[in-house]
Amino acid sequence: METSVSTTALRTTPRSSPGTAALTRRTALSLPVDYPLTEWKRLGKHLYLITDSSSWWLGDWLVFGQDTYPGRYRQAMEETRLDYKTLRNYAWIARRFSVAERHPEVSFQHHAEVASLDPEERAAWLERAARGGWSRNTLRQQLRRATLAAPPEEARNKQVRLQVCTTAERESLWADAAERDGRDLAEWIIVNLDRAAERGGGHRVHPRGGAQGHEEQDGPEPSA
Hints:
LmbU; mainly alpha; two-stranded antiparallel ribbon; single chain; 2 strands; 9 helices; NovE/LmbU-like
């Protein structure tokens, strides 16, 4: 079951008596052989909170850079050493959820599972996950079951996640083109696919499933 930890814990290092303190280094955590069980459990909660919170922090940091500075993701990769796809997904999820919509009792990864849903629907799923103590995998399984059980029309209107296998060179070219166009890579791909479909005689599909005249489609990040 997911454990809810107060954000106060983030600013309070777990206390240990002299001689039993945990030692942290850049690449290691050293614990004495007589480290108390209560302290070990408290430290685990503290580390979980830092790890989960840092995903939100990184996403918000990227969104700020995206809105404020040019060359945002290239600069971000130099600072964090994370790959473009990872950064893009952090930023996309952070942008999808306002601070008020983020559920404190489930993880960033739980939010990633429902990010493509409508605000009301994803809020309901996050609350179910929190109340049931669902892991991320359990939430994913429940979402799949709900999709399979949905009426045919509703199932057709469900948003889907597309995976695109390509080369690093091609992804870099696409990313540069998207940045020149002032768009995220996923948004750029969707807009250009819509344009190609229109040229081929198709119609634009609105995120809710109906044909609409919108210029863009808001949906989950394709994995390029």
